[in-house]
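Before the break, one more example. Copy the sequence into your notebook; we will annotate it together after we see the structure.
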Amino acid sequence: MIKDYRILFILALAGFVLLGASLFKAFDQDFTKHQKNYYKQLDVEDYTVEIKQVNVKTPGKVLIDRCQSCHIGASNPDAAGFEPPLAAHPPIVPGVEKDPHDFAKIGCVVCHDGSGRDLDIHAAHGELHGWPAPLLKGEIAQANCVRCHAMEDGTLAGAEHYVKGQELFLEKACWGCHTIAGISSSSQAPELTDAGGKFSFDYLVESMVDPSANIANSKMPTFGWVHDEETVAAIATYLKGQQKDRLRSADSAPIGYIKPKSDLARIDSPSVAAGRSLFAGAPYEGSVAKGGCVNCHAIRNSDGDLAGGNIGPELTWTIRSRGSKYVKEHIVNSRSHVADSIMPTFKDYNDAELESLVSYLSTLDYKLGSKTDGPKLYDTYCVSCHGEDLNGEGKIAAMLDPLPRDFSKYQFVASYDKRFKDSIRDGVKGTAMPAWKDIMSDQQIETLVGFIKDKSLSGHDGFRRMEVTLPAIGDKERQDYRNKGLVVEAGNPEDGHEAFQKFCTSCHGKLANGKGPNAYDLEHPLPRNLINAAFMNQAAVNDARLYESILLGVAGTPMPAHDHLSDQTILDIIAFIRANTTEEAK
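Here is what the structure looks like once it is written out:
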């Protein structure tokens, strides 16, 4: 019996110790120290230490905010000179006699995020691992202004950093790939309408500076401006403000809530000046314009100085090489010309805006002199795609599909002399390779080809490719033992489909789009996309060329010879390929 009392006594004593420890911890928390210090500095003797709680009503829930248990002087002008966390909050709206933000009503979390329920500093500031809304400090907190405020005209006093981010989102052409409801409508990249609700500020910054940091196979390029911390921070602040869930309804918000939209300029009358503004993403006639081509594309001035991005092809000669009609169509839908182009579609542009861009690009007239040597021609016209070492790995090559030709493979250079020159002169449809006949003279093309051949073939022994001809239908001289001695007939697409699935899909894929299972392990150049109609239907890609490429392979590429196939089988495969790229097939 006595033993039982002893156990009860020990348990009771332990309970009192734990209770005392809990009470001591409660009275020894950070907020109690801060409040005692606060009242001491104000020379207030009669006060009560308590949890300061604000209940912020939001649609469907009440937001608990206990931040002012520590930040007790936030609304007190007499605490302006105190050290944090006791100091008065600095004015949010500059230049007003009385700031309209009443922290006794709106609390702190509405603007700064964090975890308003917690009293521990690390938890309250959202520093615990996995907390979705870490504390936003300084100008970054402007991301949350749109939770309450309408921004019909794209401006808001006290939210200048956010507004700057919105302008940069347009200027840097982010809108071309990413959708934000009310701002842009592209489907090229992930939608950002709820970016702030899904991602932290640090995540957004990291995704811009190093796109592959969070998504290993991200196709987003690394832009030159990501090294400017102020630019990145402003855009990230704007994106952090994109949240579908708002803390207030339109009725209870201070001035109502309307989806923010920028005061965008729309061009009604085409002009070179308007095109220049669109290209640069600069304001036009005082308003922000949707543009920013210069973030991806470079151009040269009259002295040949290059300026702009290194993501897409240089546009100095695009009107001369492509023509106005092509350029307009390409802006609206680049895949109408290059099947696998990564360039976003700019369908929002009206006719006047397209004409303005073309007018501006038409003013770019720089070109080299007639006696320019091969190295200079190559460095000016070719190096950005084909690379300094001729290996097809120029600074913009990774963003092109198909990839630029690798001229360091001397077998290719030595095998296709006429085709090589024709490709430079007339361009290669369905690719980023433009026609240079209106920019370079025939002599310059000869000089350029000579330079490439000399550099590619230096140090290699001579290479000679055997010549073959396309078999004529019914030609008795082309009877083939592999075809049981029968003369060849016109290719049969159905038989060709069967042969293609058997011999070609490992590289070219079942859909003939160049994305077979082996394609990802091959070195550049990668398998050809055989359903790229723009490429396949050009005059240079005739049946004779396809026959030669299948029978002998393509020199300097992973495409092997298929000389084990009969002429009839090859013609059947060609017929199948053609059936996929005719106007009827499209």
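The two ends are 95 Å apart (CA to CA). DSSP finds 23 helices and six strands in the chain. Try to locate both features in your own notes.
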